Amino acid sequence: MKLIIQIPCFNEEETLSVTIADLPREIDGVDLIEYLVIDDGSSDRTREVARECGVHHVTGFPGNRGLARAFQHGLNTCLALGADIIVNTDADNQYSGHDIPKLVAPIVKGEADIVIGDRETHTISHFSAFKKFLQKHGSMLVGKASGVDVPDATSGFRAISRDAALSINVISDFSYTLETLVQAGRKRLKVLSVPIRTNAKLRESRLFKSMFSFVRRSGSTMIRVYTTQQPLKVFLIAGSVFFIGSLIPFGRFLYFMLRGDSSGRIQSLILGLVLFSISGFLATIGVLAELISANRKLIEEVLKTTRDVGGQNSEFRIQNGKTRNKQ
Ligand SMILES: Nc1nc2c(ncn2[C@@H]2O[C@H](COP(=O)(O)OP(=O)(O)O)[C@@H](O)[C@H]2O)c(=O)[nH]1
Ligand SMILES: [Mg+2]
User: How far is it, in rounded angstroms, from Cα 8 to Cα 157?
Assistant: First the structure.
């Protein structure tokens, strides 16, 4: 059983060495532990620090492509390196590396596909009351939308089985945390949460400049991701709002017509027809989007097979950095 711990980094020269020092060297049930740093176009010494700290693999991009892309690139790299389990953690040492065995255990035992480290955010002293409120109710909302019960939806401290990593395709630009949960729910992956410890804060969040930007960006990511996964539902809901809206002017028109007074009520009829047409239009888009989404499922199945290059059961294995056929 091979575990790779991946750390997405953007200008983390100051905190990366502390994070790496905190990572476990051995875990029960795991034969091999390796570290992977994904450097997202840092302009500081992140890569050098990673190498000085003995990180086994360093990959990344020449420019800054954002955390979601870096996360997905990390998963792909870990899969190609033959990881059976992948753990993601942050480079600012927010999460306690000592709790990685707790994250990994349910996957080793075959009891979960994904394990989320629950920070128990209501207990974190440097989180404001408003942030705690948002974390709690935001996670509940994400849980309702995804069908996955997670107390800490935005936690970046996670363990993912090889099979789950092969199934996940993050395509949003901003954050992977919510998208992976929605996909996990849709694909019926088993998601567990375990309580984990956090370390003292070393610096401010780089991802969220303010609470407002956190809510705005998380909200828009959630809507986009959910629409991609459940297009028919989203468009039918939007369509039914217009359909119900059309009943009011239609009703008004009918009411006056039945009373024998239909003159001058033509505006109601036109407004009703416009709203009704929009609802039909949205329902049609929903059906088309659902058909496109069915293709996505097929593409994901193909991707799953092609990305399984380094797997134990794969026909192909990566050896000495080269892909070669098993036979
Ligand atoms: N790849 C990549 N990682 C980033 C970027 N911004 C932040 N990160 C990483 O994402 C993780 C979490 O970032 P952080 O600023 O601590 O946000 P927090 O989760 O809100 O505390 C850290 O490992 C950062 O290095 C980015 O633009 N690209
Ligand atoms: Mg942080």
Answer: 11
